[in-house]
Amino acid sequence: MAGGGGNSLPSPSCGDDKKRRVCYYYDPGISTVDYGEGHVMVPHRVTMAHNLVAAYGMLGDMRRLRTAPATAAELADFHDEGYLALLQDLTPDGCGGDDGVGDMARARGIYAVEGKGGGRGVDNPVFDRLWDYCLRYSGGSLAAARTLGSGTADIAINWSGGMHHACRGGARGFCYVNDIVLAIRELLAHFRRVLYVDIDVHHGDGVQAAFEASNRVMTVSFHQHGGGFFPGSGAVADVGKKGPGRYCALNVPVSVGIGDEEYHRLFEPIMARVMEVFQPEAVVLQCGADSLAGDRLGELNLTTRGHAQCVSFIRSFNLPLLLLGGGGYTINHVASCWCNETAVAIGKEIPNDIPKHGFDVFYKNQEYKLHYKLETKHLHRNRNTANSIDGIRMAAMENLSKLKLEAAASVQFEERRHRSINVGDLYYDPREQEEEEESPTARLHRKLYFEPTGDQESPYTKHRCNVQPGESSSRKQRKLK
């Protein structure tokens, strides 16, 4: 069905309309991380999503997790210690010498960049505060997993996590440390079986490789495949290595241009059957937003509503759920997506009109709407057909029929050093008045419009009837026309 992509599903419901205890992790230190000029990975998208969540008034609907960077010892629960030692020592200035550091970095998939715009041609560059960045996003996923293990939350969110390509001894696909693997290993200390679901446009290869020998973790990845698309793995016939974990890897590859309706003709029946057969006790959902229409790298045609429908569907099974970020390279689309999925997690309806706040300029080209729409000419031609969708679904169901629940049901809990959880260390005390670290953009906006200096009245005070708190100057002009 050429040209059929991008059809929108109705607004996702919350499944069973039941409220959930949701906790939320945000580390403002990630907002200043810079992969380099020209690089498509922009961690500032997480700050944009956070500010949008705040603008919609959702922070009060969730318990906030303390900012808690991971430790090197926690990262070593999965990663090679030699690789971690290298990550700790890497700096942009330290890769060009004759001490062999640059060679060691390249052997691990990390490259120094030189000159203006050098980040464009390198997936995993060396940049300032690289090690700190890895500790911060990984710490968020570990903290979120521990809240689920403690039983104090039903859903935990860390939009800065979801780095699914990193492997034990190296970096890949913009990912340096695989926080997903670390979080799943933490969950395995508390739950007998953990299901990992990946709706990023790219195959979740790093997570599959980490657990393909285990029958306690099932990985399910829905991703674009074929035509040399990165990482090239994840064919429907890829069911993992021989051994107890065989068929605990399920791959659902799709072609360029798939839209909401066709995607959910695959997602919902397959995931319903996965739940029935594998019977997980907890779920990790990687919500990579590069599967959205209009992404700078992905070539699918999902809408924000169609993407969120996946979250809603998994939520409806009422299992402990960890929501993570991942890919996504059109940053205003990413922020819209993750803000909307925060609302789905909470069980809250939010309006389509983006509230006035200091980041309005980022949403101008989507007309200040949360659920942006693209013209047909900007969508990718749909290479999927009714027959190809049916064939993929039947192949996935056939693979699931070979997964024997008995093999996964008799496992014993792993003895882990992180079994004990101090809940008091996880959350901010509600009585604390936490001072949110304000972004430079929001601070400048606040000072310009709402903070007169000394006895001098702000030149904008008289316009307060026209400029609401957090409203940008561009929106003011639009309103006054």
UniProtKB/TrEMBL annotation:
<feature type="binding site">
    <location>
        <position position="202"/>
    </location>
    <ligand>
        <name>a divalent metal cation</name>
    </ligand>
</feature>
<keyword id="KW-0539">Nucleus</keyword>
<feature type="active site" description="Proton acceptor">
    <location>
        <position position="165"/>
    </location>
</feature>
<feature type="binding site">
    <location>
        <position position="329"/>
    </location>
    <ligand>
        <name>substrate</name>
    </ligand>
</feature>
<comment type="similarity">
    <text>Belongs to the histone deacetylase family. HD Type 1 subfamily.</text>
</comment>
<dbReference type="GO" id="GO:0000118">
    <property type="term" value="C:histone deacetylase complex"/>
</dbReference>
<dbReference type="GO" id="GO:0046872">
    <property type="term" value="F:metal ion binding"/>
</dbReference>
<dbReference type="InterPro" id="IPR003084">
    <property type="entry name" value="HDAC_I/II"/>
</dbReference>
<dbReference type="InterPro" id="IPR037138">
    <property type="entry name" value="His_deacetylse_dom_sf"/>
</dbReference>
<keyword id="KW-0804">Transcription</keyword>
<dbReference type="Pfam" id="PF00850">
    <property type="entry name" value="Hist_deacetyl"/>
</dbReference>
<dbReference type="InterPro" id="IPR000286">
    <property type="entry name" value="HDACs"/>
</dbReference>
<dbReference type="GO" id="GO:0141221">
    <property type="term" value="F:histone deacetylase activity, hydrolytic mechanism"/>
</dbReference>
<dbReference type="GO" id="GO:0004407">
    <property type="term" value="F:histone deacetylase activity"/>
</dbReference>
<feature type="domain" description="Histone deacetylase">
    <location>
        <begin position="39"/>
        <end position="343"/>
    </location>
</feature>
<keyword id="KW-0805">Transcription regulation</keyword>
<keyword id="KW-0156">Chromatin regulator</keyword>
<feature type="region of interest" description="Disordered">
    <location>
        <begin position="427"/>
        <end position="481"/>
    </location>
</feature>
<dbReference type="GO" id="GO:0040029">
    <property type="term" value="P:epigenetic regulation of gene expression"/>
</dbReference>
<dbReference type="InterPro" id="IPR023696">
    <property type="entry name" value="Ureohydrolase_dom_sf"/>
</dbReference>
<keyword id="KW-0479">Metal-binding</keyword>
<feature type="binding site">
    <location>
        <position position="123"/>
    </location>
    <ligand>
        <name>substrate</name>
    </ligand>
</feature>
<feature type="binding site">
    <location>
        <position position="200"/>
    </location>
    <ligand>
        <name>a divalent metal cation</name>
    </ligand>
</feature>
<feature type="binding site">
    <location>
        <position position="290"/>
    </location>
    <ligand>
        <name>a divalent metal cation</name>
    </ligand>
</feature>
<keyword id="KW-0378">Hydrolase</keyword>
<protein>
    <recommendedName>
        <fullName>Histone deacetylase</fullName>
        <ecNumber>3.5.1.98</ecNumber>
    </recommendedName>
</protein>
<feature type="binding site">
    <location>
        <position position="173"/>
    </location>
    <ligand>
        <name>substrate</name>
    </ligand>
</feature>
<dbReference type="InterPro" id="IPR023801">
    <property type="entry name" value="His_deacetylse_dom"/>
</dbReference>
